[in-house]
Amino acid sequence: MSERGPLQERKARLGARSACDRGVVGFIDIPRSEGDTMKFHIQTWGCQMNDHDGERLSGLLIKEGFTQATTAEDADLVLLNTCSIREKAVHKVYSELGRLREDKNKRDILIGVTGCLAQQEQAALFKRAPHIDFVLGTMAIKQLPRLVEEAKAGKKRVIDTGEYPDNHLFPPEVARRRSTAKALVTIIEGCNHACTYCIVPTTRGVERNRPWQDIVSEVRGLVESGYREVELLGQNVNSFNGGCSFAELLERVSEVEGLEWLRFTTSHPMNFTKELAKVIVTNPKVAPFLHLPVQSGSNTVLRRMLREYTVEEYLERLGYLGEGRAGLGLSTDFIVGFPGESNEDFEATMRLLETVQYDSSFSFIYSPRPGTAALRLKDDIPPAVKTERLQRLQKRQTELAKVSNLRFVGSTVKARVESPGPTEAGYWMARTGDWKVVHLHVGSGRVLPFGELVDVSVTMAGPHFLGAEIA
Ligand code: 5AD
Ligand code: SF4
After folding, report:
1. Could you tell which of 43, 51, 116 is best to mutate to test the pocket of ligand 2, judged by most ligand atoms within 8 Å of the CB?
2. pTM
3. Which of its termini does the chain have fewer beta carbons within 10 Å around, N or C?
4. In order of start, what are the domains of the chain with their CATH numbers?
C-alpha cells in the first residue's frame, strides 16, 4: 500500500465506528483544511444527457469542497458515469473497472458508478466488481454527496437507485460546465415510448418536464455568463410539455437576448408537429439542423420495433419542413440486423437513404439489451450479414455526406470557433449552424476567439468535414 492518502486520513479521524458502520445513514461533517482536499475524476460515456449529468455531478462535488483532478490516476474519487445503450458501451465500463481494480490495490481510492449502467444493474454491480464503493442511479443525482460521505466513512456497498421525483429540477447554478462553446440544458428526462430494442425507458424512467420558466431563466443565466449557443436535451426532447409545447418553448428561449444559436436533441418522429417544423424553419435563432431518428426503412421492422410510425408517416412529417428542408442539415439513426430483418427489409432501408439524402447518420448493429421486449424476438441473422449490412449502409452514407458537403465549397458560411487543432498546428475546429465540422486553416500562431461566430470561406469538402479559411 502507498502512503496514507486523504481518504485514509479521514477514515482514521472518524474512527473505525461511525453511524454508517451501524447501518445508520447519517451526515458526517468532515473538517477540511487547505491542501487537504480530495480530488475527483469523472469519466463519462454516452449521450449529451450523460455529459450534462457529469457536469452536474462535478458541481455537487466541488460544492462539497472537492477539487477536480486532471486524470483518474491523480484522483482520490473516481466516478464512472456510464452508458448502457449497447453492449459495447457496457464493455468499456467493465474494462475501466478492471483497470481501476489494479489501481485500488496500489492506492487508496473511492470508486463510484453512476449513469445508465448503474440504474440498470443496481446492486448486481457489486457482485461483478466488488471493488466498487457506491452505485448512484440516474434519478438520484442529488444524493451523490451523501453516498460519498457514507463510502468515505467506511460503509460498504453504498447504493441509491431510487426515483426522486424532483431529479429533473436539479439546481442549474450547481452544474460545473466544461469549457465548451455550447452549453447543455436538460429540459425533459425519461421517455414514454416503448421501442422494443431500447433500454432508455428502464434507465431513465418516465417523462418528467421542467417548467418552461426555469428553462428560460437558466438560458438567460448562461448567456449572461458568456455562452452564445445552447442545446436543449431530452431523451425525447420534442414531447416537452412543461407548461407549453416544445415549439413554444423554442420561441420563448430564442427571445433571450444575446443567444445566437439554439439546438435540441433527440426528437421522436411521432412528436414532430407542423408547429415545430415551422419554428425550426422560420426562427433564425434555431440552428438549421434536425436529428430525426428513423431506425429502419421497412414497415415490418418498424412495427416490430414499436416505433409507432410507418415509413410513409415519417416522410410525411419530414415534409412539414416544406422548402425549408433544403436549408437544414438533416441526420438520423439506423439500427441494422434487428431480429427478423430480411434482405428486402434492409434494401428498404437503403432506398430510404436515397429518398431522404441525409447529410449524416449514425448506424448501429442491433444489440440485445436486458429486460427489453425485443429479447423475445428470434435473433437469427448471422453476425457476418449484420456487419456487411452496416458497412454497406455506412459506405453509401459517406458518399452522400460528401455530396452534401461539396455544395458548400466556394461559399461563405458562419461557424462557431470550438478549439485549436484537432491535429495540425495552424488549424482550428469550428462548427456551422447545420452541425458540420469545419477545419479552419488560420496559419501557425494565430489565436481565434473561442466560442465566437466567424465567417469562413469553404475551400474543400470531405465526407466528415469542410476545409475553410477565415473570410
Ligand atoms: N441496439 C443498437 N442500437 C440501439 N440504439 C438504441 N438502442 C439500441 C440497441 N439496443 C440506437 C438507436 C438510437 C440511438 C441513440 O442508439 O438508433 O436512436
Ligand atoms: Fe446511453 Fe441512453 Fe443512457 Fe444516454 S440515456 S447514457 S444514450 S443509455
Report:
1. 116
2. 0.91
3. N
4. 23-160 (3.40.50.12160), 183-406 (3.80.30.20), 412-470 (2.40.50.140)
